[in-house]
Amino acid sequence: MKFRKLLIATLALSLWGGTMLFADSAAQRVRVIVNGGEIADAGIFTDGKTYLSARQVANTLQSLVFWDEGSKKVTIYKPNVHMFLFQDKAIFGNVVKGSKITFSVFAQIDNLLTDISSVKVSIVDPGGVEQVIQSKSVSVDKDNFWYRTDDYTYTFASTGKYTINFFMKVTASDDWNLVSQKTITAKTS
């Protein structure tokens, strides 16, 4: 009797395990690494092909992604966004901890191959707290433009890396898409 129960349990577990192995071999998770960072649950491998999440890849590459329901087409746009930080007329990138600085962010945007409705610039402190520097609706009818924020006063209260983020929206109802980052390092003297 014990032998029969053991045989049935072994057979059931073998069938279950074989089914799970078949399912796993039919569609395998793929690790996707971009610039040394892994994108969580970004890809699967099935039938000899690798499939990636367009939204996750676009976000990692700091791009705009657009879904056209009518044509069932995903388009990814990667504008070139170069940011410069100005304190008065001087460019800066590092500060002393505790400094209270009034600065503006200047962005040069080119290779913009789609219309956008607005831009936003923010700063994130080493603890992850984000503050919006400026957000503005824009109307751009060319592939390049410049954008400069108003003067912004900020206190770099702790040591570490502060990140300036530049976002764009394709349409007013879209989510913000991060398209560029700049780092400021605050050090003790």
TrEMBL record:
Q: Does the keyword Signal apply?
A: yes
| SUPFAM superfamilies according to UniProt | Copper amine oxidase, domain N (SSF55383)
Coiled-coil blocks: none
Membrane found in the keyword field? no
Question: Which ranges carry the Copper amine oxidase-like N-terminal domain?
Answer: 34-111
Which N-terminal stretch is annotated as signal sequence?
A: 1-23
- Alphabetically list the UniProt keywords: Signal
Q: Report what the protein is called.
A: Copper amine oxidase
Q: Which organism is it from?
A: Paenibacillus lycopersici
